[in-house]
């Protein structure tokens, strides 16, 4: 099913798909204890013909690790300040090394500590759609920013829990990040923001759980004002890194699924990505808070070689994503 604009068709299809997929997962999750089978042609959404069956496990797996060494007597913050000040390029080896050694936290090896441990699917419908479009692959790699508390509305927990993917969770707000860490996700994580420019920097960040965003420019300040009185200004200083620098630190420039929801800076973050050096297969990107909206987002992402597959919206406004897939993708 390849859905195109107009919006009503998009929205209707998205809701239908989400509901169907939800019902399916929910029902099976209850019926089967642990292992169940998904026929890929149920929703006619696969990128490929055929009758591949894919088992859905809630297995534990040994997550990917990187070797990093922290030298406790090394003042990495002072070094980081220097790198910020001179705005080193995204691929500067010192920047990459410092992210690897001092900012990235490894996946947890402890059992999950989730609020909803029985659930398989935590997203608002994006995960099952992306899953089907990626042909149910196992062992992929995801990036999710902002990751919030790592569970609520997570677009990636399904891939980790069920498809045994490795991944990276990016969350700028230290309070949300502390909760995220307590969930014992099997993914790398980093308490930082994704840069909206082509260099690392420390920025002012306005906290606000799922409304948190960088707050150092007029666009963001106007947005916070517009969003209203329920969002007090409560700022902190946060270190931002370009996504590319973090991926280099992980040695992982292949990303099967990138979930991007940073309250209005999505397009700015995407504009930092060297799409010729990073291989991102699919993305779900929130468009509601972008200046220029979905149209501006699609125009940019399409220019980088992607098709927009689906606009996911819910009547209550709880989801406003566009899902993209790289053109000519074959697995
Ligand atoms: C959907 O899948 C069914 C069963 O595999 C197939 O017969 C049908 O032609 C498919 N429809 C589309 C639109 O691909
Ligand atoms: C650790 O950092 C200190 C201070 O920069 C330095 O003198 C020392 O050589 C470093 N140790 C190692 C093992 O790199
Ligand atoms: C930032 O980097 C990206 C990726 O290399 C590039 O496409 C873009 O033009 C750069 N932006 C600026 C302002 O230099």
UniProtKB/TrEMBL annotation:
Keyword Membrane: yes
Keyword Isomerase found: no
Stretches of the chain forming a coiled coil according to its record: none
GO-annotated cellular components: endoplasmic reticulum membrane; Golgi apparatus; late endosome membrane; plasma membrane
Pfam (any one): Methyltransf_21
Residues in Methyltransferase FkbM domain copies: 145-306
Protein name per the record: Methyltransferase FkbM domain-containing protein
């Amino acid at each position: 099913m390849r859905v195109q604009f107009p919006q009503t068709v998009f929205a209707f299809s998205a809701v239908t798909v989400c509901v169907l997929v939800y019902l399916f997962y929910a029902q099976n999750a209850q019926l089967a204890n642990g292992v169940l089978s998904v026929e890929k042609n149920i929703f006619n959404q696969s990128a490929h013909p055929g009758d591949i069956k894919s088992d859905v496990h809630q297995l534990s797996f040994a997550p990917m690790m990187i070797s990093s060494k922290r030298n406790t007597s090394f003042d990495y913050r002072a070094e980081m300040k220097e790198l910020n000040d001179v705005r080193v390029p995204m691929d500067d080896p010192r920047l990459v090394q410092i992210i690897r050694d001092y900012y990235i936290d490894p996946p947890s090896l402890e059992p999950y500590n989730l609020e909803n441990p029985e659930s398989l699917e935590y997203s608002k419908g994006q995960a099952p759609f992306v899953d089907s479009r990626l042909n149910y692959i196992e062992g992929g790699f995801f990036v999710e920013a902002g990751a919030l508390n790592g569970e609520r509305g997570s677009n990636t927990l399904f891939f980790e829990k069920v498809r045994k993917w490795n991944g990276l969770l990016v969350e700028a707000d230290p309070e949300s990040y502390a909760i995220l860490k307590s969930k014992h996700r099997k993914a790398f994580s980093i308490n930082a923001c994704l840069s909206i420019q082509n260099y690392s920097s420390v920025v002012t960040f306005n906290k606000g759980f799922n409304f948190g965003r960088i707050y150092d420019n007029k666009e963001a300040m106007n947005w916070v004002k517009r969003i209203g009185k329920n969002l007090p200004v409560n700022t902190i200083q946060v270190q931002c890194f370009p996504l590319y620098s973090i991926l280099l630190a992980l040695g992982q420039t292949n990303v099967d699924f990138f979930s991007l929801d940073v309250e209005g800076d999505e397009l700015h973050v995407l504009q930092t990505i060297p799409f010729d050096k990073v291989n991102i297969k699919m993305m779900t990107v929130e468009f509601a808070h972008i200046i220029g909206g979905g149209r501006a987002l699609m125009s940019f992402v399409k220019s980088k070689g992607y098709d927009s597959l689906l606009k996911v919206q819910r009547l209550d406004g709880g989801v406003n994503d566009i899902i993209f897939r790289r053109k000519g993708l074959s697995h």
